[in-house]
Amino acid sequence: MAKNHPTTASARPHDYLPAAGRDAFLPFYDRLTALLGAAELHRTLLAQADLADGQRVLEIGCGTGNLTLRAKRAHPAVELVGSDPDPLALAVAERKAAGLDGIRFERGYSQRLPYPDAGFDRVLSALMLHHLDDEAKTETAAEVRRVLRPGGSLHLVDFSGTGHGLHGHLAARMMKSGHFSEEPGGGSDDDTLRLLGAAGLDSALVATRRHRLLGQVRYYRAVRPT
């Protein structure tokens, strides 16, 4: 998941947050997230995205590819691309995708996507946006609009509020029980809606769900106008 801007080869080796927080934890990442219930978040997000045969779909901040792979298995005729700055996580994703057609994983930063304009019908993002600073969030939203086709849509789930600074610890606790309760949509004070709207996307809060320990996660849809 991208954390800062791309840097030169002389810069520090990690200008992003690795999928497992640290490279050394990567071998345990998929097992842990499976035990903690990440699949429930992914199922909900994919149901919202309403994928259809022939679409091209991009996941930004794909990590080890679990959401992208779930989408491919549920919709074999959809072309899937997973993008992430972490080459070690991408290597894991590629191994898991062996034998599947119409899916690939490529290195890229969400704020500098290496794709042409209007190339995707859907963009997916799961628990990634809160890692970015304000400048990178603004650039990411602009890039999402750029790569979406007119009428295409972003489908995003992320924490709401401020209690998520420790990615690994809080994401793990957030997914631990897998039990959510539906709540009415949030009020007007929503930075994510403002961010997406400022990028020229018609955005909406689809659902707000409260976790027993961590508070709210929110699902958003944002459409590039035709």
Could you state the order of secondary-structure elements as H and E?
HHEHEHEEHEHEHEE
**What is the average per-residue confidence, as pLDDT, rounded to a whole number?**
80
Strand arrangement in the largest pleated sheet: 3-2-1-4-5-8-7-6
The total beta strand count reads 8
- Taking the alpha carbons of the first and last residues, their distance comes to 29 Å
Beta strand %: 25-35%
Structural class: alpha/beta
**Largest sheet geometry:** 8 strands, mixed
Number of helices: 7
Q: Give start-end ranges of low-pLDDT stretches.
A: 1-12, 162-189
Computed over alpha carbons, the radius of gyration is: 16 Å
Assign an overall shape: globular
Oligomer: single chain
Question: Helicity level, as a percent range?
Answer: 25-40%
Report on this structure:
The structure is a single chain. The protein has 226 residues and is α/β, with parallel strands linked by helices. Helices cover 33% and strands 26% of the residues. The chain contains seven helices and eight strands. Strands 3-2-1-4-5-8-7-6 form an eight-stranded mixed sheet. Helix 1 runs parallel beside helix 6 and helix 2 crosses helix 3. The longest helix has 14 residues. The radius of gyration is 16 Å and the shape is globular. The N terminus is likely disordered.
What is the gist of this entry?
By secondary structure, the chain is α/β, with parallel strands linked by helices. The chain is 33% helix and 26% strand. Helix 5 (134-147) links the parallel strand 4 (120-126) and strand 5 (148-159).
